[in-house]
Amino acid sequence: MQALLDELYHGQSSRATRFRFGLLLFDVLTILFFALSTMFPPGLVLYVVDALIALILLGDFAARFYLAGWRPRWLLGFDAIADILVIISLLAAFFIDNLAFLRVLRMMRLLRSRRVARDLQDVSPWFRTHQEVIQASLILLLFIFVIASVVFVVENDVN
Predict the structure, then answer these.
(1) Does the pLDDT value for residue 157 go beyond 80?
(2) Which residues are CB-contacts of 51 (< 8 A; sequence separation ≥ 6)?
(3) Residues 6 or more apart from 17 whose CB is under 8 A from it?
(4) Could you tell me if 83 and 61 are in contact, meaning their C-beta atoms sit under 8 angstroms apart?
């Protein structure tokens, strides 16, 4: 099991690259869902989709924790804490409102996914030449999402 996970998360094979691109696509789709779901009133469908996303994120989190050697120190890293907060915000949606702003932390995965960035550089000359612009755009987008989320949480009940 560990060999398979290590191959998928850290390997050089085309299967590993496809897996990491799949994770990247999942991250992008998840972020789009988080942005779009704020436009709709909470309901059973949104709660079920939140729970499904939480289960997938929990599986990814468990796999990375397993690969880290079950080190408690790994849990204190930024990525681990951000993932824990996002998973909690997804599962807590059944009981508590206004934790949705924590989901913005999921965008940090796009910025910190160095392995996927290297994979993209290998397969796309366009990405290789525009990597700095793409990263700056992601940082700007993250900033906009964070500020918009904070304003939404603070002003939602007032306005």
Answers:
(1) no
(2) 90, 91, 94
(3) 119, 122, 123
(4) yes
In this structure, the chain runs to a length of 159
Phi, psi of 156 (to 5 degrees): -60, -50
Q: How far apart are alpha carbons 36 and 63 in whole angstroms?
A: 28
Per-residue pLDDT averaged across 14-22, rounded? 87
pLDDT tens readout for residues 31-80 = 788 777 777 777 888 888 888 999 999 999 999 899 988 888 888 887 88
Contacts 24+ apart (CB under 8 A), 136-144: 138/107, 138/110, 138/111, 139/111, 141/107, 142/104, 142/107, 142/108, 142/110, 142/111
Q: Give the DSSP per-residue string, 60-112.
A: HHHHHHHHTTS-GGGGGSHHHHHHHHHHHHHHHTTT-SS-GGGGGGGGHHHHH
